[in-house]
Amino acid sequence: MKRRLKSRFAKTRGIPTQQLPRLTWLNRIHTIEFINCPWCGQRNLENQLECRKCGGPLPPPVGDDPGPAPPLPPRTLPKGYKSRMMLKNTPLNIIGGIFALVGLPIACIFPLVGFASGLWMLLIIGGGVGALFTFLGGGMLYMGIKNGFSKIHPYEHGKATVGEVTEIYRDTSVEVNGRNPWAVLYQFEAGGIANEGKVTTWKYAPKIQAVGNCVYILYIPDDPDQSVIYPPVG
Question: What pLDDT digit, counting tens, does each position of 119-135 carry?
Answer without folding.
Answer: 777 767 777 888 888 88
